[in-house]
Amino acid sequence: MKVKTILVSQPKPQNDKSPYLELAEKHHLKIDFRHFIQIEGLPAKDFRKSKIDILAHTAVIFTSRTAIDHYFRICEEMRLAVPDSMKYFCISEATAFYLQKYIVYRKRKIFYGDGKFLDIMELLKKHKDEKFLVPVSDAHKEEIPKKLEQSKIKYTKAIMYKTVSANLSDLSNVNYDMLVFYSPSGIKSLFENFPEFKQNNTRIAAFGPKTAKAVKDAGLKADIKAPSKEAPSMTMAIEQYVLEHNKAHK
What dihedral angle (degrees, nearest 10) is formed by the CA atoms of 241, 242, 243, 246? Predict the structure, then answer.
């Protein structure tokens, strides 16, 4: 069967330069977007149970804007005044600039990498005497604490928000030729919203080995796996599949 309709389990792109929109136009595909998961902040009363003393730390590591939002939200809810001496280590320049929403940027000690955690690892090693706090979600990547431990960096992992399944009741069904997933949480959400889901002729695209494993564990088949050497992005992997299969079913 040809692939004509695709549902991507992510929010709709904010601009017209999305590779998905280019893909849709180039191959005459109908591509819809729907976030299968959503972020919920951990209430301060629940965070207190972790017995983490935020102000006992001298630096914070931020891997996303979401982490920044929930760090300052928790501080506000707990009526904590973050000292001006706090140092901030951000995964990218864009994430660092987002701090302006909460602090006077030019008066703080802020460091950032080029978008990969390995980039800021070098910065962290130069500040080994700091006590780092790492705000994360309940479904965070284990790569981060692992790398910090390997480098013998003192840190505390603080779960400040969680990933939950979105309510997809406005979708009458998920009868698309292809479903695209970026995390195991997306697969979990699929079955929480559509417990009777059967794959049948639906192709499934999975980004990352953990997502591919979640697809398999759910009894489904991942027809497309990205990234790969031939297709470093999901849209490239989908395009290669579409070119091969739509041509074969002309």
Answer: 120
108-159, pLDDT tens digit by residue? 899 998 888 877 888 999 999 999 999 999 877 778 888 899 999 999 999 9
Catalogue the E-assigned strands of the chain: 5-8, 30-33, 37-41, 59-62, 87-90, 109-112, 132-137, 155-165, 178-181, 203-207, 224-226
**Strand 87-90 with 132-137, pairing:** unpaired
Domains in the chain, start-ordered, CATH in brackets? 1-36 (no CATH), 42-163 (3.40.50.10090)
pLDDT at residue 139, rounded to an integer: 79
Q: What is residue 172's three-state secondary structure?
A: coil
User: How many other β-carbons are positioned within 10 Å of the β-carbon of residue 56?
Assistant: 9
Q: Of all helices (H) and strands (E), which one includes residue 165?
A: strand 155-165
Which element (helix H / strand E) includes 31?
Answer: strand 30-33
Instruction: State phi, psi for 14 to the nearest 5 degrees.
Output: -75, -20
What's the confidence (pLDDT) of residue 172?
A: 75
Dist CA 110 CA 178 (whole Å): 43
- Write the pLDDT tens digit of every residue in 55-78: 999 999 999 999 999 999 999 999
Q: Where are the beta strands (DSSP E) in 70-177?
A: 87-90, 109-112, 132-137, 155-165
